[in-house]
Design goal:
With about 80 residues, the protein is of the alpha+beta class. The protein folds into two domains: about 50 residues, no CATH class; about 30 residues, no CATH class. Helix content is about 35%, strand content about 20%. It starts with a strand and ends in an 11-residue tail after the last helix.
Length: about 80
């Protein structure tokens, strides 16, 4: 089996753990790519809240520091609950 070093986590992993694009192996393993996507998506959500909604929820005025809570807090805008 062939092995390669991930440029992000610096671990030596099997080639199966790397994405193949146009016949070449990625420099970052699949797990690190997923972790980077999660962080990137969180930053995008935070930027939207800060830029478009003045850093708070329009419904309950919670600060953007409660972003994970805001994911499920307002599924139905007519029903509000403070019991997180």
């Amino acid at each position: 089996m062939n092995y390669k070093k991930c440029n992000n986590c610096m671990q030596i992993k099997n080639n199966i753990d790397f994405r193949v694009t146009k016949g070449y192996l990625s420099n970052i393993c699949k797990k690190c790519e997923i972790d980077q996507a999660i962080i990137r998506n969180f930053k995008i959500k935070l930027a939207i809240i800060n830029n478009h909604y003045n850093g708070h929820c329009l419904c309950c005025k919670k600060s953007s520091k409660y972003l994970p809570i805001m994911e499920f807090h307002h599924l139905n805008p007519k029903i509000k609950s403070n019991a997180w």
